[in-house]
Design a protein that fits this description.
Elements (H helix, E strand, L loop, with lengths): L1 E2 L4 E5 L4 E8 L5 E5 L13 H7 L2 E5 L2 E5 L5 E5 L4
Antiparallel strand pairs: 1-2, 2-3, 3-4, 5-6, 6-7
Length: 82
């Protein structure tokens, strides 16, 4: 998963490329959109794009980005690539 400074995100679930736009507020509120994607089946795929579009808040736990839904339930964790 890659987030760019101009509000783009790109990633893959292992079989399908995923992408969209993102914006956040200082309070941690997160708004994301997703572009259409193919729906190839992969046994080990993880829909990171799904994590992003259901997330309403984001925060850091050390260097890990933690995504939370509208109820405050954790939907996913993303580790930095480097």
């Amino acid at each position: 998963m890659k987030f760019t400074a101009d509000g783009e995100w790109r990633g893959s679930d292992g079989c399908n490329d995923e992408s969209g736009r993102w914006i956040t507020a200082a309070s941690g509120t997160l708004l994301t959109t997703a572009r259409g994607t193919t729906l190839m089946f992969c046994a080990d795929s993880v829909s990171i794009g799904g994590w992003l579009v259901t997330a309403r808040r984001a925060g850091l736990d050390g260097r890990t980005l933690v995504l939370l839904d509208a109820q405050g339930t954790e939907t996913g964790r993303l580790l930095p690539a480097n």
